[in-house]
Each structure stands twice: as C-alpha cells, then as structure tokens.
Give the backbone structure.
Amino acid sequence: MTNAMLSSSPRAIAIAPRSRASNRDVRAPFSAAPRSRRRNEQDYHSARASGSRRVSVVVAAAAADAKAAEADLPPSDWAKEWRARFDAEKVFHCDKEGACDDKENAALVDFIVAASATLADVPSRFIVVGDGGILESVRPWPKTPRFAELGAKGTCCTLASDDKTFEAHLFLSRVREVALARSERGGRKIYAIRFFGEEAAPMGTVPVPTPKTMMTVVLHGTGEGGEVPAEAVEKWESLAKVLEEKGGKL
C-alpha cells in the first residue's frame, strides 16, 4: 500500500531531459517558415488567376453559343396573323369573265379557290378537333375544290384527292372568319390556315361568342427537322393579300 502511494507521488516521477541532439533534429530554422508561406501565397494567387481565366473562357463560349442559337430563331415580331370575316348573306358576285349573279358565300368561295390554286400539291396537315377527339391527315392540298348546294345546309365545299381516298368538307354558311397565322413553337415555324365558326349561344348573349375553330390546315414540313420548304412558305404568304381582298375587316 505504501509502495502504491509512493509510485503515484509527483516527486517519484522522473522527467528525462531532452538532449541537444534532439533539439537540433526537431526544430527547423526560423527563416524557413516565412519563405514557405510566401510560396503558398504565390501558388494560391496563381491558381486563382488561372481558374478565373478558365471561367472567362467557358462564359464566353456559352455566350457565343446562345447568340448563335438566337440567330436561328425568328425575330420577336415574326409571329403574325391575318384574319378576315366572311358573312353568309348572299352577295352580288361577278366572275373574271364578267358574268354576274347572286351567289351565297361568294367571297369565301373565291378565297378557297385561290388557296387551292396557290397551294396545289403542297404537303399539308388537315386537323379537325371534335368534342372528344382529334382527326389529322397529311395530304397534298387538293388542286380543285368542289361546291354543292345541300338544301338547308347551304353550300358544301369538298377538298378531295384525285383518288378520293381523302376528303374534307366545309359548310360555308357556318364559316364566319378565316385566318392565316404563322408562329414559332419548339424551334419550329408553323404556317396555318384556320376556318372559324361561331360558338352556339343563347340569343342576346353579351359579349358575342368567341369564334370556334372548324378546321385547321398547316403546311407540313418535309425538310430537315420538319422545316417547311421556302417555296411553300412563299405561296402561303401570298394568300395574305388575297384574304385581305376577299374578306371583310373585323
């Protein structure tokens, strides 16, 4: 017990002094530390400057890519719509040969005839949206529209392929407006002709019901990435003037 007490006493612990050789081995010269810090600072600033140059190069490349991508998009004011109103009342109509008569939907008939002559054989996507379904068909625009009087239903316009495997019908008395619209969606340029009818609404409804799309015809892109050929676009754009001449102002 006495031995245990003695072994734990501070006076019983012997501390060996460090030798001169040990001091020389452990300690480094005082002047070496400042030189090391200077080198570290130089390396840090050099690495930081190099990193900044790399970031600048990446930012510049990204800006160039964005500018190139913007060049491929249409200008902000490129999207446009030409729209005209067509009334169902009978009008006094004269054809190119000078023959005149009362003809229902004469202006609309003239526009459809002009559109068919201009866009004949141009690949087009015909779209009809119903309450519960959508029908689409890609066909060349038929060259010659046909018109038939169907009693109370009025004039029916038929756009049909030569082999009759495709037919689209429009009851002209239901058409109130026609629009040519160009837009950009998902990087693609869209050129459309839309035929509008009027929404059914109770008498005296205010405001007037918004026209409802009866049928849409979109130029079908056959080029790379679905691009519409320039020749087809030029033909489509020429119809804007025809629409303004044949239709009434809204």
Q: What stands out?
A: The radius of gyration is 41 Å. Residues 98 and 175 are 27 Å apart (CA to CA).
